[in-house]
Every structure is written in structure tokens, then in C-alpha cells.
Amino acid sequence: MKCRYGFLGFFSLIGLLGFWTDNPMFFPFLGFALFFEYFFAETDEMFVQNMRKAAAWAFFSELVITAIVTFYYAIIEHNSNVALVKGIGLGFGFSIIVFCFVTAYFDWKDRCGVSDD
Known about the structure:
single chain; mainly alpha; 2 domains; 4 helices
């Protein structure tokens, strides 16, 4: 189980396509590069719990951003043809960023010895 979370780092290779294609929409995937360090980390119950919390934060942020952006483009911009596509795209990109930052925050808290108490 020790190496399983390190494989998330390979998603950062998708981010390199942003340099090759000059498309900045691929750059949020570079945030996954920090997961390569988990190939060498010893996992415990706290680590697994932190990964689950980060995934929950990312999931709910994706739902909120997708709903807001879809509503904006469908109702305010009156462009229902692209509303869901933009909503899902921005929601997914935002959730990647949230997952990476929340995981890094929980890792920092764990290394500093800060507890939930």
C-alpha cells in the first residue's frame, strides 16, 4: 500500500502537454507532481484519512464550481450550447487544484506535528 498514492504523480505528465501545445488548460495537472514523493512515504491511518479528506474537498468543490459556471453560462450569458462543457471543464480543473493544495496542506500539518485537537 506504500506505493499506491505515488502513482498519482504520473498525471503531471499531462501537464507537460501545456508546454508542447501552448495550451494553458493542461497546466493544473502539473500539481500532481508532488505525489511522486509518496512512493517513498510510509503510509498510516492518518495519511489515508488525509487523502480521503482532500478527495472529499475536491469532489464538493467540483460540484459547486460546475453548478455555478453552468448556471452562469446558461442563464446569464444565454449560451446553453457550451454551458455544461465549460462548467465541467472549469469544475474539474478547479478540483485538481483543490486536491493538490489540500493534500499539501495536510502533509505540511502532519510534518509540523499539528493535530486536529
